[in-house]
Write a structure and sequence with these properties.
Distance between the termini: 86 Å
Largest sheet: 5 strands, antiparallel
CATH class of the largest domain: Alpha Beta
Strand order of the largest sheet: 2-1-5-4-3
Strand content: 15-25%
Number of strands: 16
Shape: elongated
Radius of gyration: 29 Å
CATH superfamily of the largest domain: P-loop containing nucleotide triphosphate hydrolases
Number of helices: 22
CATH architecture of the largest domain: 3-Layer(aba) Sandwich
Oligomer: single chain
Helix content: 40-55%
Structural class: alpha/beta
């Protein structure tokens, strides 16, 4: 190998390598980066400003601070890159900078951590090598095999591939927080913090200091040294704004600026701080309706409403109840100290399960778990029976008992009675439209109109 003749091939073998002069003009760039920038050859990019070719690259920081910038993290669509940036000096003066990749994917980072943990003598550092989990749930925490649940999981996977803001809607107790955790956990941001903010739980006058932080001495009672805000904690991770509809009006303008500029300013602070946090918001209200009422900013609504995920109520996916019930029984056995032994509840009998599937669950999945826990405290055998649900009043019992709906008669009459009842229940749900009901029932809107007329609904 001739070093002088093969210098370009040697440089090109270094993953993610780029070299710029002191004016940020490109001197060298490896083939992979040239391709990412949309160019075909080194000659096309030589002399161009690095920020004009690859706007997300932070090599300019090395020149600005005249010092190494190590472990720079870049989040790009579908993967994560970690790089080092170093100044190039001649006669003690900085004449340029170079940057190269340490890791080009999350898999490389995980493999490196596993290799460290398995290296002899590293046992002492094992706790430091374990990633602190900031999410409690994953997509596997969303239980069910119904078409509705499968569709929800597909939407979560698609949302996780993007960096766009997400708004999650659905009734109370449907599991909106599980969806938020799952999106973060599946995304390239999962290496960073998932920070949850309950907008309804923080007093309006404290919201700004909690979200954006404050400097020392900025107000009476301010902590010495100031405080980092939750938005800054979520840098490069995800900021989950639960019950976003409760965000105070004066904070909505500040939140909008944060989303637009991707920077914050602490209370009492003079400088802005760049923050790259993905926003995931959730609400059980109709934000569009709140916009029309003037209690939610329209510009903030559209800034948040990029990716929208609706979590369906439990009554629209009743077929998930058997799986949900089995999952909750395992959880409750553990939390109630009955994971082993003769008092472990293993299953429900058919009557009890049917009883649960005949209810419309206004409190959704959260209510189902609560009902099961109350019943379990009356059951000390392997099988939970209907008698253990004695305080669970089912308002639809008189409407949905199969024995009363399906009286002796022809199969055609029984089918029509059952079909009519299912259509009536579906249409009676709050906010239900003919189009949505038809989708749930698996028929066209025109067919639904025909059925309504046929059964006199």
């Amino acid at each position: 190998m001739n070093l002088q003749e093969d210098i370009l091939e040697i440089l090109n073998s270094i993953e993610g390598l780029l070299i710029v002069d002191k004016n940020e003009n490109i001197v060298f760039m490896c083939d992979d980066l040239i391709s990412i920038g949309g160019y075909k050859s080194l000659s096309e990019v030589t002399g161009k400003k690095i920020r004009d070719v690859l706007g997300h690259i932070n090599t300019w920081k090395v020149l600005a601070e005249k010092s190494p910038q190590r472990e720079e993290v870049y989040l790009t669509e579908g993967h994560i890159v970690v790089s080092n940036g170093l100044p190039v000096k001649k006669n003690g003066k900085v004449i340029g900078a170079l940057e190269y990749d340490l890791f080009q994917s999350s898999n490389e980072i995980l493999k490196f951590i596993e290799k460290l943990k398995s290296t002899e003598g590293m046992e002492h550092f094992a706790p430091e090598l374990e990633k602190e989990k900031t999410t409690k749930y994953s997509i596997d925490s969303i239980i069910g095999s119904s078409r509705t649940t499968k569709s929800l999981k597909e939407e979560i996977v698609l949302a996780a591939r993007s960096n766009s803001n997400v708004i999650i809607t659905g009734e109370t107790g449907t599991g909106k927080e599980l969806v938020a955790h799952s999106i973060h956990q599946l995304s390239q941001r999962s290496f960073f913090d998932f920070v949850r903010v309950n907008c309804a739980a923080i007093p309006g006058e404290l919201f700004e200091s909690e979200l954006f932080g404050y400097e020392e001495g900025s107000f009476t009672g301010a902590k010495k040294g100031g405080k980092k805000g939750l938005a800054q904690v979520a840098d490069k991770g995800s900021l989950f704004l639960d019950e976003i509809d409760a965000l105070p009006m004066h904070m909505q303008a500040k939140m909008l600026r944060f989303l637009q500029e991707k920077e914050i300013q602490k209370i009492g602070g003079q400088k802005t701080i760049p923050v790259d946090a993905r926003i995931i918001a959730a609400t059980n209200k109709d934000l569009k309706e709140l916009v029309e009422k003037g209690t939610f900013r329209e510009d903030l609504y559209y800034r948040l409403h990029v990716i929208s995920i609706e979590v369906e109520p439990l009554r629209n996916k009743i077929s998930d109840i058997p799986e949900l019930t089995n999952n909750f029984l395992d959880e409750l056995n553990n939390s109630l100290g009955r994971s082993v032994g003769k008092h472990r509840v293993k299953h429900l009998d058919n009557k009890a399960l049917r009883h649960l599937m005949e209810y419309d669950w206004p409190g959704n999945v959260r209510e189902l778990k609560n009902v099961l826990e109350r019943a379990m405290n009356r059951c000390y055998g392997e099988t939970m029976e209907l008698s253990h649900f004695q305080d669970f009043i089912n308002p639809h019992d008189r409407d949905l008992r199969w024995e009363e709906i399906l009286e002796p008669g022809s199969l055609e009459e029984a089918r029509e009675k059952l079909e009519k009842k299912i259509i009536e229940i579906t249409l009676s749900q709050e906010g239900m439209t003919m189009a949505k009901a038809g989708e749930i029932l698996g028929i066209s809107r025109q067919m639904l109109y025909k059925k309504k007329k046929q059964y006199g609904i």
